[in-house]
Amino acid sequence: MKFAVVAHPGKYEVKDIIKSTISWASSNKAHLLLCEEVCQQLNIQESDTLTITGSDKDSISESDVVLVMGGDGTILYTARIARNAGKPILGINSGRLGFMTNIQSDELEEALNYVLKGDYTLDKRHYLKATDNYGNQFYALNEFLFTRKDTTSMVNISAEYDGNLINTYWADGLIVASSTGSTAYNLSSGGPIVVPGSGVVLVTPINPHTLTTRPLVLRADKPLTVKVQPQQSGVIFSYDGVICDEQELPLEVEIIKSKLSFNLINLPGQNYFETLRKKLMWGQDSRRIKN
Q1: 72 counts as catalytic
Q2: What pTM was estimated for this model as a whole?
């Protein structure tokens, strides 16, 4: 079996994890694919167990399974470059939170053994697709973001759902998140947690001026259209943290669930609510913690 390794050594401490993976692969007749840039940074040499490729995309295209080592930022990077690959993805945490990279370093060997045996299921996380009024298309695993630029002034952003006006928001910005992205910026902005695979899109205003404006949960298979008219404040449009080239206003973006999915590996015993409790300390009550 061929495993692509995607890592960001400039941001995360991944050298020990990669070396452990190389050792495991050597003992289990597996083969690793790792891009040249990472190998140079970590002084890793090609071997019978490891092939050096020209890029992460090359590694992914030649692999059976993709190992992502880092944090959720590395997962989102992988989601961008592997959007059409459809390969199983195992996230191995070497960052801080790592909500989607939920395998810890001390669980590495056990996790790889499960994958090698094919003892796992796929948690299909669908992308959201956005098409703007200039014909550009963008894909997001977590969220699309419309936010103010270089100003303290609020922005006016309107949203329509399936041809019907929802609201015109006067706020610092607007988040359109998938269920996967519900635990990211959406949660920090007061949006709800939604179980992945629910088939919904979340519309969450950022610091709205009116107290009666609240997040919405909508079916993702109908179009949501976000419109930004020319105004005093500049507006930035981004997807999964990537800022799009500066766009002229008026800007109109139609967002809908994509047919493409990001296939996260779910190992035996893994549970979404356990991840919530462990990573976000969800539901933790200090009154019940014994000293």
Answers
A1: yes
A2: 0.90
